[in-house]
Amino acid sequence: MSKSNSSGKPLITIEDMTKVYQMGEHEVWALKGVSLHIQEGEFLSIMGPSGSGKSTMMNMLGALDQPSSGTYTLDGVDVSQLSDNALADIRNRKIGFVFQNFNLLSRTSALQQVVLPLIYAGHKGRRQKAMDALQLVGLGDRMDHKPSELSGGQQQRVAVARALVTEPAIILADEPTGNLDSKSGIEVMEIFQKLNREKGITVIFVTHDPWIARHTKRVITLADGKIVRDEQVPQPLIAGESKRPSDTLLI
Predict the structure, then answer these.
(1) Whether the Cβ atoms of residue 82 and residue 90 lie closer than 8 Å to each other
(2) DSSP strand pairing (69-74 vs 77-78)
(3) CATH number attached to the domain at 40-66+82-232
(4) Dmax of the chain from CA atoms?
(5) Cα–Cα dist 120/50, whole Å
(6) What is the rounded CA–CA span in Å between residue 192 and residue 202?
(7) Are 128 and 134 in contact (CB under 8 A)?
(8) Distances (CA, A) of 89 to 86, 93, 151, 171, 247
């Protein structure tokens, strides 16, 4: 997997990022001067209540939108200054996305789902790369299955394979266990932990669930468009080895 950032510099550097939306005559400040460094190989969560700026932060990190001011540098590239075409290219080459709703094509096999981003990026040896990615997430025997023939957890594994097949600098996962039952959610979390531990892939979760966040190594909490906490998790939970407390509250 991608090891392009070997200089010791942060993989992601955000400095004084703001995002202001114009709502009629009013300005809505979704982000208010956020600064953040993320090193290659980190596994972290971004948390916050509704209206905290969490979703806006995800859009910025995913190069889906640009800040009103400040800078965002990803793997040496100042994303905040790019054109729309250049942003699309960055998303293709540098960022793998995993969403809560899987976003799979209903009539397309798992293998073809994973091949698609390789086609867009112009990679050679696409079929073998896609097969390797599906093997990595434990779906070597489900490659010809369509989404309707897969469980929710298996569909999310296809989405993970699709995200990692282009060897991106980061995988950005938006509530990746949100639509899964507990067992499937744990299985998907095990895959993310394995990818981070064994492949050194940088993984960023966006979540509202503190129990899920405790499986990552660092938790960044947003409130009112600002970072209010940035903490290392001293002993991250190991997926499959701990049960969700019955009194866990969702933020």
Answers:
(1) yes
(2) antiparallel
(3) 3.40.50.300
(4) 56
(5) 34
(6) 10
(7) no
(8) 5, 6, 32, 16, 44
Closest CA to 218 of 237, 197, 234: 234
Tokens of 67: 């800040």
Look up tokens 């550097």; give the residue: 13
Q: Where are the domains of the chain?
A: 40-66+82-232
The answer to whether 47 touches 210, Cβ cutoff 8 Å, is yes
Contact 160, 188 (CB under 8 A): yes
CB distance 111 to 118 below 8 Å: no
d(CA 179, CA 249): 17
Per-residue pLDDT of the chain (251 residues; tens, 9 = 90+): 444 444 568 999 999 999 999 988 999 999 999 999 999 999 999 999 988 999 999 999 999 999 999 999 999 999 988 999 999 989 988 999 999 999 999 999 999 999 999 988 778 889 999 999 999 999 999 999 999 999 999 999 999 999 999 999 999 999 999 899 989 999 999 999 999 999 999 999 999 889 999 999 999 999 999 999 999 999 999 998 877 776 444 44
The rounded Cα 42 to chain-centroid distance in angstroms is 12
Torsion, Cα 32 35 36 37, to 10 degrees, reads: 160
| Tokens describing residue 173 | 């996962």
DSSP designation for 186: H
**DSSP codes, 26-58:** EEEEEEEEEEEEE-TT-EEEEE--TTSSHHHHH
Strand-by-strand arrangement of the 26-38 sheet? 26-38, 12-23, 69-74, 77-78
